[in-house]
Sequence to fold (227 residues):
Amino acid sequence: MSQELLIDIQSLIWWYPNSPSLVFDRFNFQLYKDDFCFIVWKSGIGKTTLVKFLMRDLIPPKKMIFFKQEDLARLSTNEVQRYRRKIGVVFQDYKLIPHKTAYENIIYPLQIMGEDIGAHHSYVMELLKEVWLEHQWDKLITHMSGWEKQRVAIARSLATKPEFVIADEPTGNLDWNTSIKIADMLIDLNRKWNTILFITHDQRLIEYINQQHPTKQFELISPSYTP
Fold:
C-alpha cells in the first residue's frame, strides 16, 4: 500500500442543530493513495454527512478533516473549487444529464472547468473504452439502461484525473448481476492505480470484492454513533 496519505479524519465530532444525537463521536479515518477502501454502515447513520464533508459541501470543524495535510475547514472559495476537481464521485442515482450523450456527459466536467475540449478528445475516448462503451459514445442517456448509465458515471468521475474516487452506493439501484459487473470494473480501475473509496451497506458485495481482489487492504469502518 502507498504511504501517501490523501484523507485524514482526526477525532471528528459532529451533530446537527436541534438534534440530541451525535452523528460522529471522535471518528477517525485514513485513505491512502491506491487504496480500495470500504466505508460500511447501516443506512441513515452518517454516510450522507461524510460524503458532504469530503466534497466540501459541508464545512467541517477545524483541524478534523485534512486532504494531504491541508485543513478542509480553512479552504477559501477558490481553493474549494480546486479541491473538488481532485475528487471523482459516482452516485447511486447517476446524476447524468439526460439530453446529452455518453461522450458529452463524460467531457462535461472539463467543459465547466474551461478546458480546451478538443485537447481532451482522445482521453475521453480512452475512458469510454475503459468502461466498455467506446461503441456507444454517441448514445443518449435517455436510451441507456441502468448498467450503461453507471458506466458513464464511472467514466465521468475520472474525467478530471482525480486523486480519488468516491463510489457512493453505486450499485444501490442495480440488480445483483449488474452490481457484480460494476464491482469488477472498480476493481480493475483500482489495479490501474485509481484510489477508490467505496461506500456501501451491502455485505454480500463486500465479500464478493474481497474474494476477487485479495491483495488489497479493505478497511471496514463504522462511525461511532450515540443514540
About this structure: The beta strands are 5-14, 24-32, 36-40, 65-67, 70-71, 87-90, 164-168, 196-200. The chain has seven helices and eight strands. The two ends are 36 Å apart (CA to CA). The domain at 5-86+163-212 is CATH 3.40.50.300 (Rossmann fold).
